[in-house]
UniProtKB/TrEMBL annotation, chain A:
GO terms for biological process: peptide transport. The keyword Transmembrane helix does not apply. It is a peripheral membrane protein. GO terms for molecular function: ATP binding; ATP hydrolysis activity. The keyword Cell membrane applies. Keywords: ATP-binding, Cell membrane, Membrane, Nucleotide-binding, Transport. GO terms for cellular component: plasma membrane. It comes from Streptomyces sedi. This is ABC transporter ATP-binding protein. Belongs to the ABC transporter superfamily. SMART domains: AAA (SM00382). Residues 8-258 form the ABC transporter domain. It is found in: Cell membrane.
Automatic annotation (TrEMBL), chain B:
One of its GO terms (molecular function) is ATP binding. This is ATP-binding cassette domain-containing protein. GO terms for biological process: peptide transport; transmembrane transport. InterPro entries: AAA+_ATPase, ABC_transp_ATP-bind, ABC_transporter-like_ATP-bd, ABC_transporter-like_CS, Oligopep_ABC_C, P-loop_NTPase. Residues 293-317 have a biased composition (Basic and acidic residues). Residues 9-24 have a biased composition (Low complexity). Keywords: ATP-binding, Nucleotide-binding, Transport. Residues 29-280 form the ABC transporter domain. It holds the Pfam family oligo_HPY.
From TrEMBL, chain C:
This is ABC transporter permease. The keyword Transmembrane applies. SUPFAM superfamilies: MetI-like. It comes from Streptomyces sedi. It is found in: Cell membrane. InterPro entries: BPD_transp_1_N, MetI-like, MetI-like_sf. Its main location: membrane. Keywords: Cell membrane, Membrane, Transmembrane, Transmembrane helix, Transport. PROSITE patterns: ABC_TM1. Residues 106-315 form the ABC transmembrane type-1 domain. The chain crosses the membrane at residues 12-30, 110-133, 145-167, 187-207, 247-272, 292-318. It comes from the Bacteria. GO terms for biological process: transmembrane transport.
Length: 341, 374, 325
């Protein structure tokens, strides 16, 4: 990983929600970095804490229900404990976000032009006219035909893919340094997904932003990410460059994701190898490794460490697993890789 | 996978065996010229039909006994409507549905009653398709009760057996759906579909609401059920990799029509229709890269940067509205090969030159059919 | 949009036809013969026949209905007087076309209903917004409990109570009376203030609860989160995004409440002895003044249907998806 100038640093982030049943530890000790111009892919299944963690960067959780701790530093500025005012200046300006479902994530009551122009007016103090010009320019940039006419349309008058383009235009209108894309293509068809991912990559080239791409789809990660963080049960379990993580994964959970995923080039006569059981409870997480109850390699570690001791994620490339690095490599080579062929 | 041909030479599963032996199983459901139009209301001063959403617009397909037939396409292509038509939850606007030699296109309630137990459905959403106030036992046993089936040993014993088959603990007979996870709920749905020993199961996006690791559990279960019980499946999904893994024959739908149909190898390795090509190349794939072939202790030597991305065909724009499909070939508005002929003449779904037996493509200017994924 | 309104108006006409037919046949099917009452205690069959002819009730009911409907458009001549179009019938009790009396009484009811609605919408929605803005706080909780208590009140309980406490004992308000707004706006306002508050009380609670609930729901919407994520201030998010989304359910409930609003206004004017349509309806019942009762019913139904069309038009103003569909 290139870590010489981390633009965003998240250190020991915890997001806990108090509910009637107890404290939900949605994110429980997460650390990562993103450099300018790089794309970090955060991959995980539902409930892994990937969306909760990134929303905490922008301070989007309600202070009444969520207890956020840890350190978040963006371009040298400490964000944890920052005032609501300071966060408002940051959101949509230095750091912007794209959400999964563009139909519900855009307000149905205002024209797309107005919604795109709004942050530009607020953060840049632009006049109504300038902001409108900018909105048209952005619509053109994201590939919407006839932007000068479409600027006065409402979101429901656009197709799903076009709506996601509008979302992207809105997120990029103030030329943010950090773009967080939360499952931006999950609600879209595969041919449209390909268009949107291409667009994001092109725009990154142009704007040079750092991107955090949240997804459950390893295929999307493979296509767009430079670095990868694998999340499970509110924690990061593996980290590395995209090639390291996909070609030589270290954590048994990452192995499980790869073996359970049907691929276009896999041998169809081989059964998929799913991960047994279901994700851990965030209310009462297992005391040791969160993945231990589903892990088939617990016996390899021995002396019950997996059930009692929480493995740490090493700095840089590595996995939060009690297996030694050498053992991780051997096991992957001998047991997992043949299944993937 | 080494090469496509070797994978086919050694018949490993029963599916391959059946295919290799060259005995085509008899048709279970034959669909000819099937259409389903949903009227659009409008007009002034009194509402009347002013148009139609042509969800399914002239569909021919055959589902054979015991085979898994996959139907893929993007949202709005009519694949779900097709599933509902085949289950006769909807009545077709035109065309015929022949189930085991009987025309059921417009069959009434009474005529359908015996067939209903032979055709079952599995739905996408394991949360909303189960009644939250019923126990698992009564959900799975309901088809037995409704049809007055009394299996030897009693209904409860049969339900427990079914629960065991789909990997649920039979002791959870009296639990309610909310006590189960998403994957387990989908297992309940599968058990319910199996209760009457159907001949055909129509599975509409059965795994798309599930997480990857859970999805694999359900896919494996369905594959096992399909093979062991010899049940024919109409497997409807948007995920091409999932369909490839589950189905032996696959049809690709676009705007209410099948544009290409053939066995797995034909569709995924030698697709002739530009749309099939585009769909396949748009699938984001985990390319395991050169490290896979390297020494297994590659660890530190693993290249740090990702390999160059595979070349992709990028479709422009969106799918046109099914209420006003383009003239001629429906795909022509997004097709990079389209010519004048495509706008005037609708290409028939036929075995075009160069296609293997059973591989049909509806295109005037098909792709060369070179090996794609190897 | 225009098409939509026209279509709604056509539908409204059909609904009004049905309402008129049902009320007509209902009233004329009751066994009490109005002619018998009008004729007095010493009534010979001959006299009765004359009275029946005068009242126009000697013909079969469908014929009467037809004449009634035609009369609405052309006016009618009764043996004792002329009833110009639109004629909703002729009251023999006070020798006047029904509509004239209704129009005399209408301003009172309309003032009550509109004024009451303004009070409960402003107060109710403001309290609901406040509760939603400060949700989970003591303020939110006290507003919620207060609205629960007030919401369980009834006009015929609250009205006399307020009258006794605030007018007779403490003179906080002047004695409720109706003064036309055109003659003395201050007197109009002062005279109706207490009835407005009483009428509004029972509705306010509902709107407080509803505004709070829909706002809190809207604040959880994806597009509201998007607005926050692009740096909009808390008040912009609240008023421009969440509040805009809350308007649809509020307008919907208001449309449903129109009927009870007019009903409530009628009960209120009865409670405070104001000369409105409610009193008129009650008096008509006690005097067996069937034409008047029929007229009031039909008139009230027309008003409610008209207001409903207005509410529908509001949808289109609020939601572009309706407008452009």
């Amino acid at each position: 990983m290139t870590t010489n100038s981390p633009f965003l640093t998240v250190d020991d982030l915890r997001v806990h929600f108090s509910t009637e049943d107890g404290t939900v530890k949605a994110v429980d000790g997460l650390s990562f970095e993103v450099a300018r111009g790089r794309t970090l892919g955060i991959v995980g299944e539902s409930g892994s804490g990937k969306s909760v963690a990134t929303q905490a960067i922008l301070g989007l959780h309600s202070r009444e229900t969520a207890d956020v701790s840890g350190r978040i530093t963006l371009d040298g500025d400490e964000l944890t404990g920052a005032s609501e005012r300071a966060l408002e200046r940051l959101r949509g300006n230095t750091a912007a976000m794209i959400f999964q479902d563009p139909l519900t994530a855009l307000s149905p009551y205002y024209t797309v032009g107005r919604q795109i122009a709004e942050p530009y007016r607020k953060h840049r103090g632009a006049s109504r006219r300038e902001a409108r010009e900018r909105a048209i320019e952005m619509l053109g940039k994201v590939g919407i035909p006839h932007p000068a006419q479409r600027v006065d349309d409402y979101p429901h008058q656009f197709s799903g893919g076009m709506r996601q383009r509008v979302m992207i235009a809105m997120a990029l209108v103030c030329d943010p340094d950090l773009l967080i894309a939360d499952e931006p293509t999950t609600a879209l068809d595969v041919t449209v997904q390909a268009q949107i991912l291409d667009l994001l990559m092109e725009l990154q080239q142009e704007f040079g932003s750092a991107i955090i791409m949240i997804t459950h789809d390893l295929g999307v990660i493979a296509g767009v990410a430079d670095d990868v963080l694998v999340m499970y049960g509110g924690r990061a379990v593996e980290r590395g460059t995209v090639h390291e993580v996909l070609a030589a994964p270290r954590h048994p959970y990452t192995w499980g994701l790869l073996t359970s995923m049907p691929r276009l080039t896999a041998d169809v006569d081989k059964e998929l190898v799913p991960i047994a059981g279901s994700p851990p409870s965030l209310l009462t997480p297992p005391p040791g490794c969160p993945f231990a109850p589903r892990c088939t390699f617990v016996d390899e570690v021995g002396d019950g460490r997996c059930a009692t001791e929480r493995p740490a994620l090493p700095e840089g490339r590595g996995a939060a697993c009690h297996l030694t690095e050498a053992r991780q490599r051997t096991l992957f080579g001998e047991r997992i890789r043949p299944r993937l062929a | 996978m080494t090469t496509a041909s070797t994978a086919h030479e050694g018949p490993t599963g029963p599916e391959e065996a059946a295919g290799a032996a060259g005995e085509t199983p008899p048709a279970l459901m034959t669909v000819e010229g099937l259409t389903k139009y949903f009227p659009i209301k409008g007009g002034f001063p009194f509402q009347r039909t002013v148009g139609a959403v042509k969800a399914v617009d002239g569909l021919d397909l055959v589902v054979r006994e015991g085979e898994s037939f996959g139907l893929v396409g993007e949202s709005g292509c009519g694949k779900s409507t097709t599933g509902r038509l085949l289950a006769r939850l909807l009545e077709p606007t035109g065309g015929t549905l022949t189930y085991r030699g009987r025309d059921i296109s417009h069959a009434g309630r009474k005529e359908l009653a015996p067939i209903r137990s032979e055709i079952q459905m599995i739905f996408q959403d394991p949360y909303s398709s189960l009644n939250p106030r019923q126990t698992v036992g009564s959900i799975v046993g309901a088809p037995l009760e409704i049809n007055g089936v009394n299996p030897p040993g009693g209904r409860e014993a049969r339900v427990r057996e079914l629960m065991d088959t789909v990997g649920l603990n039979p002791e959870h007979y009296n639990r309610f759906p909310h006590e189960f996870s998403g994957g387990q709920r989908q297992r309940i749905g599968v058990a319910r579909a199996l209760a009457l020993e159907p001949r055909l199961i129509i599975a509409d996006e059965p795994v798309s609401a599930l997480d990857v690791s859970i999805q694999a559990q359900v896919i494996n279960l369905l594959r096992r059920v399909q093979r062991e019980h010899g049940i024919a499946f109409l497997f409807i999904a948007h995920d091409l990799a999932v369909v490839r893994h589950f189905s032996q024959r696959i049809a690709v739908m676009y705007l209410g029509k099948i544009v290409e149909v053939g066995d797995r190898r034909a569709i995924y390795e030698r697709p002739r229709h530009p749309y099939t090509h585009a769909l396949l190349s748009a699938v984001p794939e985990v390319d395991l890269g050169p490290a896979m072939a390297e020494d297994r202790d590659a660890g530190e030597d693993t290249p740090k940067e990702r390999p160059p991305r595979r070349e992709r065909i990028r479709l422009e724009g969106d799918v046109p509205s099914p209420s006003a499909p383009p003239s001629g070939c429906r795909f022509r508005t997004r097709c990079w090969k389209a010519q004048d002929r495509c706008a005037t003449e609708e290409p028939p779904l036929v075995r075009i030159e160069g296609n293997e037996e059973g591989h049909m493509t509806a295109c005037h200017f098909p792709e060369a059919g070179t090996v794609l994924l190897e | 949009m225009l098409r939509f309104l026209l279509r709604r108006s056509l539908g409204a006409i059909v609904i009004l036809l049905i309402i008129s037919a049902v009320t007509f046949f209902l009233f004329y099917a009751i066994p009490r013969n109005p002619a018998l009452l009008a004729c007095g205690k010493t009534c010979t069959p001959d006299q009765l026949a004359i009275v029946e002819a005068n009242l126009g009730i000697d013909k079969p009911v469908p014929v009467q209905y037809w004449e009634y409907m035609v009369g609405i458009f052309t006016g009618r001549d009764y043996p004792i007087g002329h009833c110009p179009a639109p004629c909703l019938g002729y009251s023999f009790t006070d020798n006047r076309p029904v509509l004239e009396t209704i129009l005399d009484r209408l301003p009172t009811t309309l003032s009550l209903a509109v004024g009451g609605a303004v009070v409960f919408l402003v107060v109710g929605l403001a309290m609901g917004m406040l509760a939603a803005w400060r949700r989970g706080t003591l303020l939110d909780k006290s507003l919620s409990s207060a609205s629960l208590v007030l919401g369980s009140m009834q006009i015929y309980f609250l009205g006399p109570l307020a009258l006794a406490l605030l007018v007779h004992n403490n003179q906080v308000f002047s004695q409720p009376k109706y003064e036309p707004i055109s003659e003395d706006p201050m007197a109009w306002f002062g005279g109706l203030l207490l009835p407005w508050l009483v009428l509004a009380t029972i509705f306010t609670a509902n709107y407080t609860r509803m505004a709070r609930a829909t706002l809190i729901e809207q604040l959880r919407e994806d597009h509201v989160r998007t607005a926050r994520a692009k740096g909009m201030s808390r008040s912009t998010v609240f008023f421009r995004y969440a509040w805009r989304g809350s308007l649809i359910p509020i307008v919907t409930i208001f449309g449903i409440d129109l009927g009870s609003l007019f009903g409530g206004a009628m009960i209120t004017e009865f409670t405070f002895n104001l000369p409105g349509l409610g009193r008129l309806a009650v008096d008509s019942v006690t005097k067996s003044n069937l034409p008047m009762l029929m007229g009031v019913m039909l008139f009230a139904a027309t008003m409610i249907v008209l207001f409903n069309i207005l509410v529908d038009a509001c949808y289109a103003l609020i939601d572009p998806r309706v407008r452009l569909a």
